[in-house]
Design brief:
Helix content: 40-55%
Number of helices: 7
Radius of gyration: 17 Å
Distance between the termini: 37 Å
CATH topology: Rossmann fold
CATH class: Alpha Beta
Number of strands: 7
Structural class: alpha/beta
Strand content: 5-15%
CATH superfamily: NAD(P)-binding Rossmann-like Domain
Shape: globular
CATH architecture: 3-Layer(aba) Sandwich
Order of helices and strands: EHEHEHEHEHEHHE
Length: about 240
């Protein structure tokens, strides 16, 4: 019998109820991981858990939460420590894109929401989960970025800033862990059929864009204990934005 690539690993996935997060959760479960799934939508989490249970015979740990409430993240970390004592894989996937507009016209509330979820929440995740990742024999942190960090992307405003900041944060964290068992990397999935994409490309035929299931292999590669990459920005595709 072939050993599953993530057998026995504990993996936390944010933004798990739809899109890339949902696809990654199902793939990780198929590879033998125990999933801790975080999303604001309880019903969608329960539906995903039913699918995982049917496919694998194992239930996930469900965490309905709004990551913009930063104190909730600390509670999640404390709960994981009490239950598992460690975390093997962290996938920071939850993200937000608001209406495209010139930088000087970005509404302050939109700016605050995007920076809070795309950047600050991921900092709080690292801060809270770092002790748990260090308890793993091979802690692996994976954060989802975008092609907007490359070149110039007019009208993408806070989203560009948040993803550029995320990449700098993760590569800094990775450099600080070069002599530890914790690795951190960034994955740019390229154009992917998600609920976020129509905000930027409202007239696009979704069938012309790859489904999120096609990028899950890259997440597994970075999540494996044998993966030695650290501080890398891995691009699945780079023709356009996520």
């Amino acid at each position: 019998m072939t050993t599953k690539r993530l057998q026995g690993r504990i993996a936390l996935v944010t933004g798990a109820s739809r899109g890339i997060g949902r696809a990654v959760a199902k793939r990780f479960a198929d590879e033998g991981a125990h999933l801790v799934l975080v999303s604001r939508t309880t019903a969608a989490l329960e539906e995903l858990d039913d699918e995982i249970l049917q496919a694998t015979g194992e239930s996930a740990t469900l965490v309905p939460a709004d990551l913009s409430d930063f104190e909730v993240i600390d509670h999640i970390g404390a709960s994981l420590f009490e239950r598992f004592g460690r975390l093997d894989i962290l996938v920071g996937n939850a993200g937000l894109l608001t209406t495209l507009t010139p930088m000087a016209q970005v509404k302050p509330n939109d700016w605050d929401r995007v920076i809070a979820l795309n950047l600050t929440a991921n900092y709080r995740l690292l801060r809270s989960m770092d002790p748990l990742l260090r308890q793993s024999d091979a802690g692996r942190a994976i954060f989802v970025s975008s092609t907007v960090t490359q070149g110039t992307w007019p009208y993408w405003g806070a989203y560009v800033v948040s993803k550029a900041g995320l990449e700098t944060m993760v590569t800094t964290y990775a450099s600080e862990n070069m002599k530890t068992s914790v690795n951190a990397n960034i994955l740019n999935p390229g154009p992917t059929r998600t609920g976020m994409r129509p905000v930027a490309y409202p007239g696009e035929d979704p069938e012309t864009v790859k489904p999120p299931e096609e990028v899950t292999g890259a997440f597994v590669d970075l999540a494996e204990a044998s993966c030695q990459l650290n501080g890398e920005i891995i691009q699945v595709e780079s023709q356009t934005t996520k």
